[in-house]
Design brief:
- The protein is an alpha/beta fold and 465 residues long.
- Helix content is 38%, strand content 16%.
- The protein has 2 domains: 2-182, Rossmann fold (3-Layer(aba) Sandwich); 191-462, Ribokinase (UDP-N-acetylmuramoyl-L-alanine:D-glutamate ligase), CATH 3.40.1190.
- It has helices at residues 2-15, 29-43, 61-69, 103-113, 178-182, 222-234, 249-255, 267-275, 292-304, 313-316, 322-328, 339-346, 356-367, 402-415, 420-438, 444-462; strands spanning 20-25, 47-52, 73-76, 87-91, 119-122, 144-148, 166-170, 186-188, 212-216, 239-244, 260-263, 279-284, 308-310, 333-335, 370-373, 379-381, 387-389.
- The strands form 2 sheets. The chain has a 10-stranded mixed beta sheet, sandwiched between helices. Strands 3-2-1-4-5-6-7 form a 7-stranded parallel beta sheet, with helices on one face.
- A hairpin with a 5-residue loop joins strand 16 (379-381) and strand 17.
- The longest helix has 19 residues, at 420-438.
- The radius of gyration is 26 Å and the shape is elongated.
C-alpha cells in the first residue's frame, strides 16, 4: 500500500506543479492508497485535503495504518467541496467494486463529473468494474489512471476504457512469478505476443514459399475485395488470386496489376480454384453478396478444411440458419464479425448483456474456431479460452473498408504460414498501428499504404526472430 500510494504521488508530481488537491478516500485498500498519496504530496509541500468515506478510526487493516499516518486535514465525504480545487485523487473504489455506486459516494461523483477538474484515478476510476469495464452507476473521467502490477480488463474494454485516460502501470513489488499462480488467459495485444511467430522473409524465399491466398470477389461491391487483396499483398503474401464473375473481371484486372484475376462464374469453377493445393488459405465474404450461389461458395470453402477467413457476407448468407454455418466450421477458421453481425450469428446462444470478453470466448467455444469480435476494443478469442484484447485502435479507424483491410492482413499472414490465432492477433495490432500512425482523415486505402511503415517499425525486433 505504501508503494502504491507513493507511486500515485510520484506520478502526480511528475505531471503537475504543486496545487490544491482533494483526495477522495474510500473505506478499503483503495482508500488506503489515497491516504498514502495524500501524505506523500503533503510532505512535498502540496496543499492537500482528504475527503473520507469512513472516519479514519473506523477503518481496519492496512487502510487504517495509512489513515493514521496521514497528517493533514480530513473532512467527511459528504462535506467534500470541489471549489478552489485544482486536482482530484479518486481513491474511493478500486477493482473490487461489484455493485452500483450509491449514497454519499454517488453524490460526490455526480458533482465531480460536472466539474472540469482533472482527476487521477487509483487503480480504476471509481464506478468502473475492473473485471468487465462496465460502469456501475456512475464513474468520473480520469486524465490519468495509476494501476499496479498489470492492467486490468476494465482498463481495456469499453465503456470503462474511455474513462481511464492514460493508464500507467507502476511497480509495487509484486514479482512476475505471481503470474504463474494466476495463469491469466487474457492479455493486452502487444508485439511480444506474436513477434516470434511473425513470418520474416528469408534470402532463399520466393513468391511460392510465401504462400498463395485465394479471395472470392463480389460482382457489385468490388471495392471491398480489392482492399482485402492489396492488404494481403502488402503484408507479404507471395501470390494472391482473386476469383470473380466474368462481368466483374475487367474491374479487378484493371485495378490489381500484381494479383492473379481468375473467372469463377460457376460453383464448379470455384471448386477447381479451391482444389489447387498451392492456394493454402482463403478469404470469403467482403463484397461477396447474398444469395443461394454465394452461400454455396462459402460451403465449398469450408468443405476444403483449408485455413480461411470469413467476413461480412459470409455471415449474412447464413443469418437465418447460423447453425448450418457453425456445423461446417473448423479450428483453422477465423470469423471477423462486428457487433451487429455477431448478434445475428450468436443471438440465440449467447447472453448479449455479458461483457465483450466473455461473449467472444463463448462464441469461440461454440464454433470451435477463432472469433475476432471487432470494435474499438477488439477481442480475439480461441476455443481453449485464450483471448487477446486490442487497445491501439484510434477513433478514426471507424471508416468504410477498414474491416476489409483487416481481413486481408490476416489472410496474408496465414498465407505465409503464421498460425491462425497469432495471425489474427498480429493483424489486428498492425491494423491499429497503421491507423494511429496516419492520424485523422484516414480512409481504408491509407491503412494499406501504412503497412510498410509499421513493418519498418518492427524490423529491428524481427532481425532476431
Amino acid at each position: 500500500m505504501r508503494r502504491a500510494g507513493e507511486g500515485v504521488g510520484a506520478i502526480i508530481s511528475q505531471r503537475w506543479k504543486p496545487c490544491r488537491v482533494l483526495a477522495l478516500c474510500g473505506p478499503g485498500n483503495n482508500g488506503g492508497d489515497g491516504f498514502v498519496a495524500a501524505e506523500f504530496l503533503r510532505r512535498a509541500g502540496w496543499n492537500v485535503t482528504v475527503a473520507a468515506m469512513r472516519a479514519p478510526k473506523d477503518l481496519s487493516g492496512d487502510a487504517a495504518i495509512a489513515a493514521k499516518n496521514w497528517q493533514g486535514k480530513t473532512v467527511p465525504l459528504e462535506n467534500a467541496s470541489f471549489e478552489q480545487i485544482d486536482l482530484v485523487i479518486d481513491a474511493l473504489f478500486g477493482t473490487g467494486l461489484s455493485k452500483p455506486v450509491e449514497g454519499a459516494a454517488r453524490t460526490t461523483l455526480e458533482k465531480l463529473v460536472h466539474t472540469k477538474i482533472p482527476v487521477v484515478a487509483v487503480d480504476v476510476p471509481s464506478g468502473v468494474e475492473g473485471d468487465t469495464g462496465a460502469i456501475l452507476g456512475i464513474a468520473p473521467r480520469a486524465v490519468v489512471t495509476v494501476t499496479f502490477f498489470r492492467k486490468k480488463i476494465g482498463h481495456l474494454l469499453l465503456p470503462g476504457a474511455t474513462l481511464c485516460g492514460e493508464t500507467i502501470v507502476t511497480d509495487i513489488g509484486i514479482g512476475d512469478r505471481t503470474l504463474d499462480a494466476i495463469q491469466p488467459a487474457a492479455a493486452e495485444n502487444a508485439r511480444e505476443l506474436w513477434l516470434n511467430l511473425f513470418p520474416v522473409p528469408k534470402p532463399q524465399d520466393h513468391k511460392y514459399t510465401r504462400g498463395h491466398a485465394l479471395i472470392a470477389g463480389g460482382a457489385v461491391m468490388t471495392g471491398a475485395t480489392r482492399l482485402a487483396t492489396r492488404a494481403a499483398q502488402r503484408i507479404g503474401a507471395g501470390l494472391v488470386t482473386l476469383a470473380a464473375s466474368q462481368d466483374a473481371l475487367p474491374i479487378y484486372a484493371a485495378a490489381l496489376e500484381s494479383a492473379i484475376v481468375r473467372p469463377a462464374d460457376s460453383l464448379a469453377a470455384w471448386h477447381e480454384l479451391l482444389a489447387d493445393e498451392k492456394r493454402n488459405v482463403v478469404l470469403i465474404g467482403p463484397g461477396l453478396g447474398i444469395g443461394i450461389a454465394e452461400a454455396d461458395y462459402v460451403r465449398a470453402v469450408l468443405d476444403t478444411r483449408k485455413p480461411c477467413v470469413l467476413d461480412a457476407d459470409a455471415f449474412g448468407n447464413f443469418a437465418t440458419a447460423p447453425g448450418e454455418l457453425f456445423a461446417k466450421l473448423h479450428p483453422d477458421c477465423i470469423l471477423t464479425p462486428h457487433e451487429g453481425e455477431f448478434t445475428k450469428l450468436f443471438g440465440a446462444c449467447i447472453d448479449h448483456n455479458q461483457d465483450k470478453l466473455i461473449r467472444a470466448r463463448q462464441a469461440a467455444k461454440i464454433v470451435n474456431c477463432i472469433v475476432l469480435l471487432k470494435g474499438a476494443d477488439t477481442v480475439i478469442a480461441a476455443p481453449d479460452g485464450a483471448a487477446v484484447i486490442n487497445a491501439n485502435a484510434p477513433p478514426w479507424l471507424a471508416t468504410a473498408g477498414a474491416g476489409d483491410v483487416l481481413a486481408g492482413i490476416i489472410l496474408g499472414l496465414i498465407a505465409q504460414h503464421m498460425p491462425v490465432f497469432a495471425a489474427a492477433v498480429a493483424a489486428t495490432w498492425i491494423h491499429g498501428q497503421a491507423a494511429t500512425t496516419f492520424g485523422p482523415g484516414l480512409i481504408a486505402e491509407d491503412l494499406i499504404a501504412g503497412i510498410p511503415d509499421v513493418l519498418e517499425g518492427l524490423s529491428d525486433s524481427l532481425k532476431g526472430v
